[in-house]
Design brief:
Radius of gyration of chain A: 22 Å
Oligomer: heterodimer
Structural class of chain B: alpha+beta
Structural class of chain A: alpha+beta
Order of helices and strands of chain A: HHHHHHHEEEEEEEEHHHHHH
Strand order of the largest sheet of chain B: 3-6-7-10
Helix content of chain A: 40-55%
Helix content of chain B: 40-55%
Largest sheet of chain B: 4 strands, mixed
Largest sheet of chain A: 4 strands, mixed
Strand order of the largest sheet of chain A: 1-4-5-8
Order of helices and strands of chain B: HEEHHHHEEEEEEEEHEEHHHH
Number of helices of chain A: 13
Strand content of chain B: 15-25%
Shape of chain A: globular
Shape of chain B: globular
Chain lengths: 395, 364
Amino acid sequence: MAVATTHSASEEFRVRARSWLQAHAPQDWRERLASATDRQVADFYIEWALQLHGAGLLVPHWPQEFGGGGYGIQEQLVVQQEMRKVGAPRPRTLQISLNHAAATLMRHGTPTQKNLVGGILEGDVWCQGFSEPDAGSDLASLRTLAARHGETYVVNGQKIWSSFAAHAQWCLLLARTDPTAPKHAGISFFLMRMDSPGVTVRPIRQSTGHREFCEIFLDDVVIPVEFRLGAEGDGWRLARTTLVSERVLPMLDEAEDLRAAVRTVAMQIAEADHLRGHARDGLVDRLTEVAIGTDVLAASSEKAVAEYVETGALGATAPILKLYHSELVQRLTGIAAEVGGVYALIDPGDEVRDLGYLSGDWFTDHMRSWTFTIAAGTSEIQRNLIAERVLGLPR
Amino acid sequence: MHLSSDERDDFRASVRGGLATVIRTQAGKIARDQDPAAIWRYASDVGWPGLLVAEAYGGTGAGMEAAAIVCQEIGRVLAPGQFLASAVLAAVALAGAEHDALRDRWLPEIADGSAVGAVAVTVGGMKGSPTGEGWVLDGKTDWILDGGDATFAILPAAAGVDGEVLVLIDLASQGVTRVPVMTVDRTRRLAAIVCDGAAVPPASVIACGGSAAEARAQLAAYGLVAVAADSVGGIEAVLQLAIDYARDRKQFGRPIGSFQAVKHKLASMYVAGASSSAAVEAAARALDEGDLESSQMLVAAAGHHAIESYVSVAGDAIQVHGGVAMTWEHDCQLFFKRAWLNRNIFGGTAQWRETYARGLVPTA
């Protein structure tokens, strides 16, 4: 995406970012990590994040009081663009720490809670304890209970689909503090240490072979009152305010990754000797639709960035981005896996590394794409939100 | 000229407000008997015909980004008219003409709206034969968008060894007949041009040979983005009809808009419209900023996406309304038919998809 960088500060920043990345970006990291353990992969991402931070390139868009560079979102996008050019990895393990957790702490935290942001810049991994086995799309029906005992809460329950929980030091936790209140009103927001007694994490082996998601079992876990975020019963509102924008912001230049993948698949079709006639034309046609969709996504993202820079908020363009992006990824990876034939279906083995969602192992990427259409609000929930909040249709 | 989002909003509001004063309505709906001359008079008073004409010729040179906003608002109210043909296509064609004389003669009148040009981008059955001085045209151009209101036409013609020639022809000149073409889209006035030994002086040749083909490709790109912008306006209007209806209409004791099947359809229609709007805005800016080659893929993508979205959203709007939208009186059919004309005009979206595919996958 060509982000309009109108002022020269951005250009200076770009030059600085480029020269640092050219000198320091890890080489051949995909190959090196191919036989690493999950722990080693996580450590690699964290170590890389700390290096980026040392160079001022991890969180240029954060305010300086939190250790950021005090720049805007454009500079963050500049870093992402330059990282893509040199093939540098995104620090995936810190995805929640750097986006959702940091924004929540900065915006709603007490002074003590805000100090936890500093830990993120030293490599603290945060995970999110929102969903439960019986509370998915209907998240507000969650049943994990936090009972107040003096200056502490005692928490019991079970969380699921928590990415990176196996590596996490902290958890953004939603739990019910008032079982008698209406379901949205009885929920509070907690910051939970993952090494608290009574916390058990069990990684879930996914259909792709990855072990990114975890179950978290909570058995009489004690959380001090000072680690409740906001007021008791205000958890739902706090969760909602950061949920949408913080999910969308890091996505704003994903179209560029998709574009690169589209070009790769186009080359694979061009070189596929086994594809002829209508079979080839049909795949080209479907890829063309996805490529057009990718250009449209890029234009929509660009507009969202411009709106964000001008107004400080994501306008009506934002809710469409997640929906659009996730469905494009699903279609693209499906076409790519079809082009690959049986070669695309060779078993990758028991241990699959987390090396990006467009890794080029197209069938694995295709299976994984359902996490995008399901996580953080399914496509169906997104359409409900658009219909009710943007179009004003009755519930 | 690159517009900030505030400038875009202000300009859009003024265009929308202006059109509202000249579009006839009937019982809150768009009336079927619009007055293209009155709309054009207003447009000329406020300078829309000169948006793509350089200041030296009396225009504002604001560019396609601004013109696309006008197209979008025109599409929203299904306005008839000369804007797309004259202010966009004729202005662009003349700006690239070989001879200054042609620009000097016509651009000031294009800019102030006193002359109206219409442009064909397909050769069809028109043939040009060189004479000692200029060309003679024989044959038929099957349709020109907005040709019913034009003073002159810009036509491509097959030209034997020269390949093709792009010429300007005064529609009042001898040997030229204009025949109205009624399409299913009654909001627009197309015309066929029949030439029988019509003389074209050398000064009226816009381009010849390879440069005529290039000019035609450029005009098709502008035409595509213009009807894509028209489509974005149409999507927004027909979607609003469907939303309003889904809120009001009750079945099974509830508004039908509370049913998830209807809600999701409307949400998908909104996504199609919002993404089309962003894409067309980007494509219009690309035409203003870059050469045709660098903007070609984005133009094809945005045009294809917005127009195909219009066709599908207009169909979905009929579905949301149910039987009432199948009546002649209902506005849904007007949007649906205009969407289809947008789809098949300026090369057809299927052909643009082919253009895009050729740029994407190298052929063996």
